[in-house]
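Support request, please re-run this one:
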Amino acid sequence: MESDNGKGLILAVASSVFIGSSFIVKKKGLKRAAANGTRAGYGGYTYLLEPLWWAGMVTMIVGEAANFVAYIYAPAVLVTPLGALSIIISAVLAHFLLKEKLKKMGVLGCVSCIVGSVVIVIHAPKEQTPNSVQEIWNLATQPAFLVYVAITMSIVLALILHFEPICGQTNILVYIGICSLMGALTVMSIKAIGIAIKLTMEGVNQIGYPQTWIFFMVAATCVVTQLIYLNKALDTFNAAIVSPVYYVMFTTLTIVASAIMFKDWSGQDAASIASEICGFITVLTGTMILHGTKEEEQQASSDLIFGSSETVRWYESRKSRNEEHLITLYSPEY
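Re-run finished. Output below.
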């Protein structure tokens, strides 16, 4: 058992390294693509022709595959918190390769997000693994989860159709919200597919069931949507901010979706519930700190490019005095 946990630990750490690096490689690819066409943040798809972006995609796929296999050898309470390592790796690489500075308050926000997410995961209830795809289908079609899916899709459509045109370029929660909401559904579908593959390899064929292919189509749709809006987020916002916010929202929503679908909350004691609430509050606080740091960076950049309002007023007043002086010199009365 210890040997299996060791394998899971190594795979989880390797997954974080690959995923954290993929954010940086993909953003460098997006920057190159933006120089030759329409930016991804404005609906362009030039990045599909950029080899560096594809290198980042391959790196992310390898990381996700390692993370998927890690769950086979080690429990979720060991594997999931290690995903926070990708935030640190992404922030460090962004500092050195993209010259994106993360201030002290940003670091505090990252730490708060990581601590809150770890608390949520550690105190999350232990799930019961289904024995067939049909059993998972019954869980996916129960009223509570159908309501969750309906609410999720309504929010996603509202973000895409209403909020993206208005504040998609200024509010990081729009793009990341879409990625995270769809990501939670992706995990539920991928888990069903993984169980189907595992059972099939053990001799219990699950490929012939239509539910398996429905889960596959749902997973494919969700993954494509995630990639599109994650690219927009990386192309528009600081990678050192995108990575932790995405991790926090994705982890939180995945835990909620899993709890509803697999009824993991039943049997929870008061201490565990209180700990999870504290974790959610910590995550929310960290997200707000990160958001405030991003707004300060944008304001500072605007001041450097356009000058502060005080400078503009000084320039205008100086210009007015000069103009008045010239008018006086060239007045016909003199």
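The chain has twelve helices and no strands. Residues 129-263 form one domain.
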